[in-house]
Amino acid sequence: MKRPKRCYTSHMRSHRPFHWYWFLLIPFFGTLIPIVTETIVNFSYYWPGFIIALFFFWIPLIIVFIVGAKSVAEKESFYKLQKSSTEEIQKHQLEAADAKCAQVGDEGERLVADIIEQTIVGKHYLYNDVIVRGNDGKTSQIDHILVSAKGVFVIETKNFSGKIYGNEDDYEWRRTLGDGRPATKFYNPCMQNKQHVQRLSDYLKMDDKIYSAVVFAHGDISDIAVKSVLTLSDLKDLLSESSPDMISEMDLDRISGMILQMKVHPVQSEEEHRVEAKTTKQNISNGICPRCGGKLVLRTSKNGWKFYGCENYPHCHFTKRL
Q: Distance between CA atoms of 118 and 115, rounded to whole angstroms?
């Protein structure tokens, strides 16, 4: 799920009361200066008028000025407190949303892990939440790595509900809930898992026998025509198929030992991985290639669709569709 965006309403951004009471200084000084001057020059003649103006005009004007200033100060204090309270509420809402997202994701991963353990036969190893670093220096957090005689399966679990739309080459997929709300977009899980496979392949130094599987624990993927995108039922059927062994028992133990080494001595903590992932997204949004640090430039493919590609092509093949 996407992290909720912080947003403030217009009155939170810049709502300041108009300082109307400052205009009271105009008539105050406009009348005070000439009257005081005349009073000093001809005191005996003007002092009764001075006293009347003092009690019936200037003193009430000063009182109104003080009351207005106090009122504005109280309103500004209220708006600051309101904004602070709203930010605190939104902070708690974001933390609650993050916790809910993590809980929902964990539920889907547990379902996938249970199906694997219940279905797979023969010697196998299952590792969950493995962080691996590839030759590009970047890390991937893999939901499940299944090591069996049939091969090494890199499994990405999605726990989205609703109708899922997308093609293998689309940069983003869409999800609709059918309740009138607009569709939400998310990064193509096939491309995401392709990076996972590549980085695991770099670490294990294996060019084949590593397979990608994207499993939607919920949601309707009937319109997805990608062989590696599966439902829980499809995953069960895949693991139940009889097929020749691709990996010997000796290689099975060797591969398992290498992955276990990553679990015992992780190359990166989960928090560090989240920070790196956030930085990568920020770099892409700022037009910086997340792989080599080059500049992303607008290009046009042979088919006519536009995309952002790294300026260091062909040495770097990173692309991002519009």
A: 5
Amino acid at 75: K
As a CATH number, domain 285-322 is 2.20.70
181-195, pLDDT tens digit by residue? 788 888 899 999 999
- pLDDT for 95 beyond 90: no
Query: Could you state, in order of their start, the residue ranges of all structural domains in the chain?
Result: 10-98, 120-268, 285-322
Kindly report, residue by residue over 139-154, the tens digit of the pLDDT.
888 999 999 999 999 9
How many angstroms separate the first and last alpha carbons of the chain? Answer: 21
pLDDT category of residue 98 using cuts at 50, 70 and 90: very low
pLDDT at 298: 86
DSSP, res 183 = P
pLDDT of residue 214: 96
CA 79 – CA 14 distance, rounded (Å)? 10
What is the distance between the alpha carbons of residues 57 and 54, in angstroms, rounded to a whole number?
Answer: 6
Structure tokens at 47: 């002092």
Instruction: Say if residue 134's pLDDT is above 70.
Output: yes
Phi/psi region, residue 293 (left: phi>0; alpha: psi -120 to 50; beta: rest), is: left
Q: At what angle do helices 232-240 and 59-119 cross, to 10 degrees?
A: 30
User: For residues 62 and 51, what is the distance between their CA atoms, to the nearest angstrom?
Assistant: 15
Q: What does CATH list as the number for 120-268?
A: 3.40.1350
Long-range contacts of 238-245 (CB under 8 A, 24+ apart): 238/213, 239/115, 239/116, 239/119, 239/120, 240/119, 243/150, 245/149, 245/150
CA dist., res. 263 & res. 270, Å (int): 12
The phi-psi region of residue 178 (left if phi > 0; otherwise alpha if psi is between -120 and 50; otherwise beta) is left
Show the tokens assigned to 54: 């003092």
With CA atoms as reference, report the closest residue to 159 among 102, 93, 222.
102
Least Cα distance to 109 among 97, 101, 121 occurs for 101
